[in-house]
Amino acid sequence: MNEQTLALHGLAIKKHGDAAGIAQITGLPEETVTKHLEAAAQAGRVNKAGEKYMLAPTAAISLQSGYSRDFAEQRANAEMNAAYDDFETVNDQVKQLITDWQTMEVGGERLPNDHSDKEYDAAIIDRLGDLHEKAEPVLDRLTAHVPRLKVYKDMLLEALERAEDGAIEWVSDARIMSYHTVWFELHEDLLRILGRERVE
Amino acid sequence: MPDLRWTLRLDGSALPDKSLIGGKAWSIARMRALGLPVPPAFVVTTRACVEFLAKGDWPDGLAEEIDAGMAWLEEATGRRFGHGPQPLLVSVRSGAPISMPGMMDTILNMGICAETEEALAEEMGDAGFAHDVHRRFYDLYADIVLKCVGAEFPPEGDAESWAATLKEKSGQAIPETPRDRLFASIDAVFNSWNGRRAKRYRKHHGIPDDLGTAVAVQAMVFGNMDAQSGTGVLFSRNPITGARKPYGEYLACAQGEDVVSGKFTPQPVETMRETVPAAFDALMAASETLEEANGDVQDIEFTVQKGALFLLQSRAAKRAPAAAVRIATEMVREGVITPQVALTRVTPDQVRLLLAPRLKPGEAEAADELCRGEAASPGIGIGTVVTDSDEAERRAAAGENVILARVTTSPEDLHGMLAAKAVITEKGGSTSHAAVVSRALGVACVVGCGVGSVTAHAGQTVTVDGSTGRIYAGALAAEAPDEDAEADLAQLKDWAQAACPIPVHTPEAAPQAQVLDLNAIEGGEDAANLPRLLEGAEAATGGALATEEGMAAAIAAGLKFVVGKPALPLLLAGARAGTAHEDRETVAVSAQG
């Protein structure tokens, strides 16, 4: 995948993002992302509002249709697909953990977690640390086939350690590159690479 | 016995330091030292781990010592590790002197393999259980030792297919023999000391990196061997009433998880007298011993294997408020504890719950229950339901009794909560704003009644029971227990008066003075503000005082006295604020995880 396509791919994952955010998940330098997205904007393939870009519908379709060629090798690779199946297993556990983080059971009812119970929160962050240790080998197996995915692993660890240090918004806050945000974008990237559908 | 450098046998002959053997092994050693029946165990000491960390490999002689330790366990149990006809299974657990995240969890069923599964099936007469013991071992080994995801071990599989799955999913082969698996697990415990989380935790908390962790290896016992086997829980006194009579449950021919699962109904522990009389007598004796040694009511988990009793864990029991009062006062009369200790065994909250106004007998049964939620702050509140805090304040100022009903409360509702006889909410649990603030104010509170529940009753007169979490239509008759009428409470009050550094008066009996009402000033519901608010005051009253933090502030501010009714919660808080807490060391071992 060339730099230009990768910049558009990063934008497709972000849906609505700025050059810095796309640079962070694709591993491209920010100037490179800006250069390609500005050119794409000139050509009408990308819409720009303020600092944020969005793919034009036709560009989104042509990006999608190019994936089978761009990722032909990965899609045909049994190890990559097996690693992805294990990613899905961890994904289920991450989703359950985030639900437990956002809600708590009180008297048999699920209610929003107001984060006033520090022990409850600490136990979940501890569980997240354990889950991350189990996810690491799976991420390594995926990275063996798509080296640029390593940036996600680094960002996940960074978010985890911030949460461990007490900044609990790094567990799931959607406005920052929290553990859940990074995980979600990695999942989106993998779905596009392997041409799979999100199972909800 | 050969000279042991890296391992210790927990035979009760000595009580080694926790820093050498870890907390779990220390508890086992302590119980053995008390002469109690605990499944035999030995421990690989932190010294061995430290040597491993320095050298990057096992210290010379460690493997031989572990083999010798296993032989000792075989001898003590009359069973064989890795072989039939009576196979020995062990648990392997880490035990750092200080507990920290990221240390390896417990591995159970170590020693199971194709040969021992068959032997165990024969011995138990239950092939399905033996197969599940085997399957669960693979589960634990994959999850805990290899940190592997996505490996599933279906019950219809066998060891060969499970091992293949494990190899495929983790990239590592499971060692062939039980001995090699045991060694690999001990290795994994050592390595978990240097895991990312453990390292960060130590750095964050200033814990030295070279303490190392111990590894306890303990024989497992099974409560489902035969009709003379079973499992149960015993309290050394009744945890509901406080009566000095052991209270417990027993399930014959079952494992611990069967009791917890709720699939079977346990029998009263007295049924053991019929089926396993020797184990019953030993259990009663152990209950006495543990209570005496620990000076508190014990909650004991045990298993009976082929008629022989084994204690798995014992810790200070959780107890109901009435039991807490009765047990604390009786133990003083028995000479087991001092009055000072008794005062630390009953919390101000427990006494507040006991002395909270309650509905007169028969009232609740005859009433119409409107809704129910979680009981968040005890007491009875009767009044008109109001859904707005400004309105609650206005109507209360005009002399009306109001109940504040909100979806949730926030700091903006404080004036309404102060004015209300009770607070009820639709969302939130026992740690929500409404619950926390109501408890601080001493106002009855029920939370989490469900969306659309309480606010729908605006304008209606209701009775809120904060002790049971129920809300009734109409005004029901309530009464407040008298703290001086009940002998145990009066006794506790006597001791608390002697121990509390400042006097506590009821409003009727208070001397003439300027009494600061904390419930009437901003921030007065939060004990953290009291040092500032109490500055220069002569005397004070208010819900926030009935906590250790609150009374500590009153003592530090040099108040002449505090005012409140009932007085006992304040006196207890004052007594507790004035004394250091006893170290609630629990004697806890667990053989079954």
TrEMBL record, chain A:
Full protein name: Uncharacterized protein
Domain of life: Bacteria
Automatic annotation (TrEMBL), chain B:
Entry's EC annotation: 2.7.9.1
Alphabetized UniProt keyword annotations: Kinase, Pyruvate, Transferase
PEP-utilising enzyme mobile domain sequence ranges: 400-469
Ranges where the Pyruvate phosphate dikinase AMP/ATP-binding domain occurs: 63-272
Pfam families in UniProt: PEP-utilizers (PF00391), PPDK_N (PF01326)
InterPro entries: ATP_grasp_subdomain_1, PEP-util_enz_mobile_dom, PEP_util_AS, Phosphohistidine_dom_sf, PPDK_AMP/ATP-bd, Pyruvate_phosphate_dikinase
GO molecular function per UniProt: ATP binding; kinase activity; pyruvate, phosphate dikinase activity
Entry keyword Metal-binding: no
Protein name (record): Pyruvate, phosphate dikinase
Organism, as annotated: Rhodosalinus halophilus
Species classification: Bacteria, Pseudomonadati, Pseudomonadota, Alphaproteobacteria, Rhodobacterales
